Amino acid sequence: MAQFPDDPAVVTLIPGDGIGPEVTAATLRLLEAAGARIQWDEKRAKPVVGRRKEDSTTDPVVESLRRTRVGLKGPLSTPVGGGHRSINVALRRELDLYANFRPVKKLPGICTPFEDLDLVVVRENTEDLYAGLEHTVVPGVVESLKIITERASTRIARFAFEYARKSGRRKIAAVHKANIMKLSDGLFLECIRKVAKEYAEIEYREVIVDNCCMQLVMRPQQFDMLLLENLYGDIVSDLCAGLVGGLGLVPGANLGDEHALFEAVHGTAPDLAGKGFANPTALMLSAILMLRHLGQNDVAARVERAVYQVYQGGRSLTRDVGGKACTEEFTTAVIGALA
Predict the structure, then answer these.
(1) Other C-beta atoms within 10 Å of 33: how many?
(2) Which residues are part of the catalytic machinery?
(3) Are the C-beta atoms of 62 and 94 separated by less than 8 Å?
(4) Distance (Å, whole) CA 64 – CA 95
């Protein structure tokens, strides 16, 4: 059946755990008010996803995402030190969402040490220590395998440089620890260097990860884009979020050649669940990325202007950013600011 520009896009919706359903409901209310042309296919993620091939391929969430190719996801919980594997990691591997994309931009009205910060973190999303290949060698000794491949390193490098070219970004810094892990991180850098030669207009540099963290908390404006392996990227992207006010204020996307999953990158905050205090900003900003991915740029622009206007006004903000508004009041204010 032909797809027309005004046809609604079918999108998989994963409300998530904890405060997930609350921030999801707020975001859906905003998107409807803004005129987003979306038909939702709501699914609940189960812990079995990705643990065994027969589970992951028949799980309703994966089936839906394979069909719709686009998803919006609230936060999902992962047990620490035991229990089921991370559903987030499993979804990324199952759907080959190899690029984790995290724009970090200061919102107006939020007091931080760094004004006008605007950088992008690109993280390889499928391998490294997150491959989950670990075992007990002997009692008291555990071995984890760090997997770095030429294929994965090359395609994440190309993703980053292509994005930089298309969006007008001028600098990319590859973050590594090749002074110690000479083979694995060395291969990562070798692949990036080859790709960088094809993008002469993009300034390329390399920075050791510990130095990068120090530089970020001293002079983050020196960076335009950061390109990292999986583990470093997970840590550094959260550090960058802290520079603009925290994980509740930044969007996230997991992108592949065939599928895209947009998500709130913060936790489930079970202590806040059901109290009406949750800040839906991160998921709203992720929904803006999703709208642009779907080609609904007019709606994305309206939503973005409304969110920024509410933050600029400072009168209807949630408690985590110094306000007194509940989730519903904040959402109502953003809807009221739609142009």
Answers:
(1) 17
(2) 130, 177, 210, 234
(3) yes
(4) 11
Q: Quick one: how far is CA 225 from the chain centroid?
A: 15
Nearest Cα to Cα of residue 60 among 94, 35, 89 = 94
Q: Is 199 helix (H, G, I), strand (E, B) or coil?
A: coil
The mean pLDDT of 83-88, rounded to a whole number, is: 59
Do the Cβ atoms of 119 and 104 come closer than 8 Å? yes
DSSP state of 202: S
Phi, psi of 83 (to 5 degrees): 75, -160
- CA R_g for the chain: 20
d(CA 263, CA 286): 6
Tokens (6 digits) for 111? 């007091």
In 168-237, where do the E strands start and end? Answer: 171-176, 203-208, 225-228
- Range in 175-184, 265-274, 320-329 with the lowest mean pLDDT: 265-274
CA dihedral of residues 154, 157, 161, 163 (deg, nearest 10): 110
Q: What is the pLDDT of residue 251?
A: 97
DSSP string of 234-269?
A: HHHHHHHHHHTT-GGG-EEEEE-SS-EEEEE-S---
Number of H helices, E strands in the chain: 11, 12
pLDDT, tens digit (0-9, with 9 covering 90-100), for 164-221: 999 999 999 999 999 999 999 999 999 999 999 999 999 999 999 999 999 999 999 9
- Amino acid at residue number 306: A
The SS3 of residue 231 is helix
Go through 190-228 and write b for each residue having 16 or more CB atoms within 10 A of its CB, e for each that does not: ebbeebbeebeebebebbebeebbeebeeebeebbbbbb
Percent of the chain beyond pLDDT 90?
80
In terms of Cβ atoms closer than 10 Å to its own Cβ (0-12, 13-18, 19+), residue 131 is middle
